[in-house]
Amino acid sequence: MERTLSIIKPDAVAKGVIGKILDRFESNGLKIAATKKLQLTRQDAEAFYAIHRERPFFNDLVDFMVSGPVVVSVLEGENAVAKNRDLMGATNPQEAAPGTIRADFAENIDANAVHGSDSLENAANEIKFFFSGRELS
Ligand code: CMP
User: What is the distance between the terminal CA atoms of the chain, rounded to a whole angstrom?
Assistant: First the structure.
């Protein structure tokens, strides 16, 4: 059993597809262990994506992530990290397989609907970033 962090990004929240995206997780064997909607501050977004600080897209990424509310969730299930990444599809929606969340709901590589942890180790850190122990019992 694994846990992973999902973020429904501002583009998908603005489009009104929170429920449709959460349904993809539940319909594919991932339980929603915790979830909440919140507005990231610039400091939150810079800290969360600190690993990308030197990348040319960092400022655009931070601008986008603070442009509206997001929904953060902890997904739980067998192979949750890999399963969530399969359900999301490729980072660039133009390359995402048909039927994936990004193929169906994303516009471009910045406004790409969802984020998902890329390893079990990052999942643990990203979950801790957003959720307290009390929210995750
Ligand atoms: P995400 O999984 O949230 O992790 C970092 C984000 O940076 C990524 O999704 C994309 O939305 C965004 N991004 C923008 N340009 C690039 C790029 N060239 N390579 C990877 N990620 C990018």
Answer: 15
Q: How far does residue 134's CA lie from ligand 1's centre (Å)?
A: 31
Q: Is 115 a catalytic residue?
A: yes
- pTM value is 0.97
DSSP state of 3: E
pLDDT digits (tens, 9 = 90+) for 28-44: 999 999 999 999 999 99
Calpha distance 27→47 (Å, rounded): 32
Active-site residue (options: 9, 24, 85, 115): 115
Give the mean pLDDT of 97-115: 97
Q: Across the chain, what does the average pLDDT equal?
A: 97
Cα distance between residue 8 and residue 72, in whole Å? 6
